[in-house]
Amino acid sequence: MATNPAFILGIDGRSGAGKSTLAVELATELRRHRDVAIFHLEDIYPGWDGLAAGSAAYVSDVLAPLRRGEHATWDTWDWVKSIPGTEATLPPAPVIIIEGVGAGCAAARDMLDALIWVEVPDDTRKSRALDRDGEVFAAHWDRWAAQEDAYLSMDQVPQQADIVVNNRADGSAAPHALRALSALPNAYRFLALERAVASAQLPVHQQIQGSPDTAALFEALYKDSHYAVLLESSNLAFSDPRQRNRFSIMGAANTESSAIFEHTGGQGILREGTATARIPGGFFEFLAQQWDTGAFLPDTLELPFVPGWLGYLGYELKRETGGRNIVPTASAGGSIADAALIRPAQVIILDHQVGMVHLLCAADGDPKAFSSQVQQVLAQLPAAVELPRPLLPAPIFESHDDQHGYLAKVRAAQEQIRQGYSYEVCLTTSLRAQNISCEPWQNYVRLRAANPAPFAHYLRFGNMAAASTSPERFMSIAANGWMRAEPIKGTRPRGKSAAEDAALIQELESSAKDRAENIMIVDLLRNDLSRFADPATLSVPRLCAIESYATVHQMVSTIDARLLPGASRAEAIAAAFPAGSMTGAPKISTMRILDELEDGRTRGLYSGAVGYFSATGATDLSVVIRTLVMSHAKETDTWDLSLGVGGAITADSSPQEEWDEVRTKAFGVLSALGSVFPA
Fold it and tell me: Is the per-residue pLDDT at 333 higher than 50?
């Protein structure tokens, strides 16, 4: 009997898909750290009509004993003489790879730790198979293919596989499949050594002196990429001693060394080159296993981000942190993933303070070609990105709530506060415009010009794009474990004159209601951070400070604390998610109130977080506000636009003033598009 259970991997696919080659190549990689045994199902098929019988014998005579840690014994088949052959035995091993048509059949799946389905176009499969096996197989191809058809018509194996590999037969299938395999929860411990080796690889780092326009550089390199992220400090003229506007980061999943992860409804889809894996479980579980490993790279480059993941966490992840699960509808942006990340192999970081362009490239991401490409672009880059022409006609938005309805919801929120179910309710609504002919990147450039911000971002994830001028940090964790949250509560519009502007600042500073809102969220975040922090390090270095942006004045506070040694960074983020400034307090009961007041409408990306998860263990996430979310309608090649807006309701809120605040917060995005608030 084996003292340690084996890891059993099944590789299934139709004839000619390249299963045997993939099995051998994976075995070669896995043997670097452990013994590997391979079983080929063709050894047990009893002839050219034996797919069904062979699959049954494989399960009972091979897979079941190996699963128990025992030797497997079976009767082989002599394909030359078409008669039973000799008896064969396979001893258990730490890793057992089983390949062949039927390896992933229904009777076998519960005994496999992971299943790979290998996919190849039919005409390619046939030519490969006949080239390999010659005339012997040619005479029986149709006969065997009919059995495969029958097998797959009764058992949807590809849909049940953990990983699907599109095998191009160019050597890429094995490394891509291995990367995807390492992300499966079942393989987490088993592939610990492979994961440790991969995470210890420092990227190739090159520095280029210069201060290019961030948007112009992104436009030249990544504007047309369907999976790309720009995190831009676009308010460089703003004097910020906290240096939130020092760095900008950009990257795209545009090489086969990159990865794309999208999480929806409790399941993730991970694309690693030619391999696509289904990852069960919650998003924060994935984040803990794939980022928060404890084996972080040293912070030797002194940069905010070392690849790493870039992307967003949508508000509906609240289902994992105490909130209810609300299923999105198509009309409410249901096609947008709950969370999405890219792991780019090539990243550019601009240090605006010292005028330096940093290139970071994985060793297998072709650093030399990447450097050459960027330098050529920089040599021809304009001084500033060109501002697009105004959208004509300007998008016409409709509001989910009209003024009368929103005021009624404010009063309903106050009734919940009066009854003691909440202290503060961050009520939101949404503005939508459908079938708009526009380019998402140009919309970002418009917003960027109208309202620079320290946490501006542009996201592109397939049919979704987002353009944001967010001023608010949700949470950061430095490589050394220091955490920071900077909630915003309290807003006034900019004045039309210097005197009016100063008066509005004074009004915000002296507002008892706005200070109360802000302090309630500070208390909430102090509690959120303290769950994974050393209590002695908890502090509030800024309380109710005023910051001014292009269209608004904001009241901002800062909460700091240091993570406990050994504490999970992913769990610390989950403990504070969603941002308290977007829910109210206490968080869980208030989120339930919001589900009802907001008519069961999902917020999607709005109210979530955007940022990075560095290989050094550092992270910095902004709150998704002042953000235009765009969904592509393929049929009409137009975009549906969505803008979330809202405000914090307290017992002494004026319903009319809350509605006015919604209009104020929407102004920055709407005016950049030439639009107006719905009548």
Answer: no
Q: What gap in Å lies between CA 181 and CA 480, rounded to an integer?
A: 30
Outline where 38-121 has alpha helix (H). Answer: 51-57, 64-67, 106-109
Strands 227-232 and 398-399: unpaired
- Residues 217-272 have pLDDT tens digits of 999 999 999 999 999 997 776 666 667 789 999 999 999 999 999 999 889 999 99
DSSP state at residue 156: -
E-only strand ranges, 120-258: 163-166, 204-209, 227-232, 247-252
Q: Model confidence over 31-75: pLDDT tens digits?
A: 999 999 999 999 999 999 999 999 999 999 999 999 999 999 999
Per-residue pLDDT for 539 more than 70? yes
Output the pLDDT for position 193: 85
* R_g over Cα of the chain: 28
SS3 602: coil
Percent of the chain that is helix, strand, coil (3-state, to 5): 35, 30, 35
In this prediction the pTM is 0.94
Cβ-contact 270, 277 below 8 angstroms? yes
Neighbours of 143 (CB within 10 A): 10
Please, what is the end-to-end C-alpha distance for the chain in angstroms? 76
Q: With 50 as the cut, is the pLDDT of residue 1 above it?
A: no
Give 4's pLDDT tier (boundaries 50, 70, 90): low
Mean pLDDT across 489-502: 91
Name which of 194, 292, 196, 252 is nearest 458 in CA terms: 252
Distance CA 505, CA 502 (A): 5
Give mean pLDDT, residues 363-378: 95
CA–CA dist 5, 255 (Å, integer): 36
Does pLDDT of 3 surpass 70? Answer: no
Which residue, among 471, 545, 548, 542, has the nearest Cα to 245 in the 3D structure?
Answer: 471
Q: Which residue in 283, 340, 209 sits closest to 571, CA to CA?
A: 283
Contacts of 293 (CB under 8 A, 6+ apart): 195, 199
**CA-to-CA separations, 50 to 82, 86, 146, 410, 425, in angstroms, rounded:** 11, 17, 12, 70, 66
Q: Are 233 and 244 in contact (CB under 8 A)?
A: yes
Cβ–Cβ < 8 Å for 116, 165: yes
Q: How many CA atoms lie within 13 A of 624 on its CB side?
A: 29
Q: Are 162 and 109 in contact (CB under 8 A)?
A: no
Please report, for residues 85, 228, 436, the alpha-carbon distance to residue 260 in angstroms, rounded to integers and kept in the order given. 47, 10, 27
